[in-house]
Each structure stands twice: as structure tokens, then as C-alpha cells.
Design a protein that fits this description.
single chain, two-stranded antiparallel sheet
Amino acid sequence: MVKQAKKRVLLVEDEALVAMLMEDYLTDLGFDVVGPAMRLEPALQLAQTEEIDFAVLDINLAGKQSFPIAEVLRQRGISFLFASGYGTAGLAEGFESVRVMQKPFDRSDLERAMQQVAL
């Protein structure tokens, strides 16, 4: 029997405690976590080069927005969702249809959101 590889999720979150909590949630849900990336430039590099199946992106990364990362993921055909304390109010034009998870959230919220995005 061939062991199926775990799905890999890119985690982009600039708050260390939130990143650790989200990483725990994702690991508990059976995913391999890529990252967490806490700044735009390293996250963009991971989005361009890593084999990933899905991504969870904080919108605001230390004053920079994660939309360039989202655009790379979109071009690569990789599903993603945003996590934000601002809800849909922080979305840039062209991303209005992307699922936004309102912070704070728990593991079941994350699991439900990821299922809705068809992971």
C-alpha cells in the first residue's frame, strides 16, 4: 500500500503567536505546513517555488499587503483564502470573490473555510 503524501499548505502570517496557533491547527488537521512566512518577500519566494496545494494568507504583513502572493498563487492554479481582522473590508480589487476568514477563529472555522474553498 502506497502512503499518500500529506497536502502542503503555505501559511503566511506576520503575528508570531497567531502563526504558531494556525500552524498547530493545520498540523492537527493533517497538513504539512510550508512556512510560516511572516513577511511579504519570503512569502512571495515560497509561493513561487514551493510545491503547495493550498495557502492561508494574512492580508496585512507588517504594513505590506499579501495580494502579490495571492496573484502568484492564482497564476499557479493554487487555491487560497485570506485571514484578516478586517474581514472583507481589506480586500483589493479583483479579490472580492476570495473567501476571507475573520480573525479571531478556531480550528473548526479554519477546517470549514478550507473545505469551502475545495481543498
